[in-house]
């Protein structure tokens, strides 16, 4: 490694491209209602200082730096209930050096809280603090109930779970359970088994960090792929097959997209090739019958990136894409990701004698030994 010195590595999530010179990352938990809470959460990992830069694999264990409040609503459904919180700090600064949280502010802000299906489960992220006089209000069609939280300490990495019975305007609270948030849910990079991760129907496959061959040998492929070289690539996860019409429909409906689907003036999808359609009367997207498991087509780069971000990920880089292709052939001896000959390529690719007009349902062909199609 550089100067033969061991190094410490730290990582945090969500990633921010700009952190000021004091290594301070701002926290803001005010808007939680419409967000995936993982995008509001704060995860942090630091190594022991014994890692060498010569090793492309650096084990990192992420832990929650915020608190989590969970309310389980009993007895009945509360569809369309709105929940807000006041009296909680909503802004602070987090030090990437010593993990301290300072400059808490926004105690007078109103937090929009995320409500689960039928209002049966309510989750809220909390900056570690002592709440002296907080309120959580429940509003349903003009009826309001409030829970007053007095002199309550919320610690980093802890989950606070309660059972609530709401009989407007009364709230009965019982069954406090305080536990370690994330016990058994920490993210162990490069020490986990090489198994699929259950995101959507076991959608992602782990590609372990390592040193991979990137590019093509001289005279093979295009000049911009030369020279072939080795590059260290960290662990990542990738979809083993194309995103389907049904999966993309789930994304569009979750984002409440209308036709044509757009985000920040960028088009996500160009007509859907007639395979996914929009029902304006109910404001819902749906897949054409019988085409649910076919690959989605005519998605723009913006549309692909937003789908990946909806899952909490991103599009693979070119290096990551090549690493996924070479994961079973670290020495670069094979021409293809599945073999070194063309004898059985028809089992793996839709071409020549087996070619069909248009696309094929995902997983129709043979996967590689790593489970990639």
Automatic annotation (TrEMBL):
It comes from termite gut metagenome. This is Sulfatase-modifying factor enzyme-like domain-containing protein. InterPro entries: CTDL_fold, Mfa-like_1, Mfa-like_1_N, Sulfatase_Mod_Factor_Kinase, SUMF_dom, SUMF_sf. Residues 205-373 form the Sulfatase-modifying factor enzyme-like domain. GO terms for molecular function: formylglycine-generating oxidase activity. Coiled coil: none annotated.
């Amino acid at each position: 490694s550089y100067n033969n010195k061991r190094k410490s590595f730290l990582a945090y999530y969500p990633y921010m491209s700009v952190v000021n010179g004091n290594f301070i990352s701002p926290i803001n938990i005010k808007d939680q209602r419409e967000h995936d809470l993982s995008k509001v959460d704060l995860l942090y990992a630091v190594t022991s200082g014994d890692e060498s830069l010569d090793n492309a694999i650096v084990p990192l264990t992420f832990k929650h730096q915020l608190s989590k409040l969970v309310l389980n609503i009993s007895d009945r459904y509360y569809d369309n209930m709105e929940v807000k919180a006041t009296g909680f700090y909503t802004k602070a600064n987090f030090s990437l050096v010593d993990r301290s949280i300072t400059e808490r502010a926004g105690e007078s802000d109103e937090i929009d809280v995320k409500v689960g299906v039928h209002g049966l489960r309510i989750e809220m992220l909390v900056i570690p603090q002592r709440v002296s006089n907080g309120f959580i209000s429940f509003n349903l069609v003009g009826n309001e109930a409030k829970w007053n939280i007095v002199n309550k300490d919320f610690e980093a990495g802890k989950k606070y779970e309660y059972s609530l019975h709401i009989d407007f305007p009364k709230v009965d609270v019982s069954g406090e359970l305080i536990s370690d948030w994330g016990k058994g849910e920490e993210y162990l990079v490069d020490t986990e088994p090489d198994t699929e991760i259950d995101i959507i129907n076991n959608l992602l496959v782990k590609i372990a960090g390592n040193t991979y061959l990137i590019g093509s040998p001289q005279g093979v492929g295009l000049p911009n792929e030369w020279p072939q070289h080795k590059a260290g690539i960290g662990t990542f996860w990738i979809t083993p097959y194309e995103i389907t019409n049904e999966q993309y429909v789930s994304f569009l409906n979750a984002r409440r997209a209308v036709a044509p689907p757009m985000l920040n003036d960028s088009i996500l999808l160009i007509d859907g090739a007639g395979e996914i359609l929009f029902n304006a009367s109910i404001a819902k997207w749906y897949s054409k019958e019988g085409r649910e498991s076919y690959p989605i087509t005519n998605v723009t780069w913006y549309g692909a990136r937003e789908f990946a971000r909806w899952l909490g990920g991103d599009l693979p880089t070119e290096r990551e894409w090549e690493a996924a292709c070479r994961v079973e052939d670290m020495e670069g001896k094979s021409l293809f990701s599945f073999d070194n000959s063309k004898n059985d390529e028809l089992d793996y690719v839709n071409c020549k004698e087996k070619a069909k007009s248009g696309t094929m349902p995902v997983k129709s062909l043979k996967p590689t030994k790593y489970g990639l199609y």
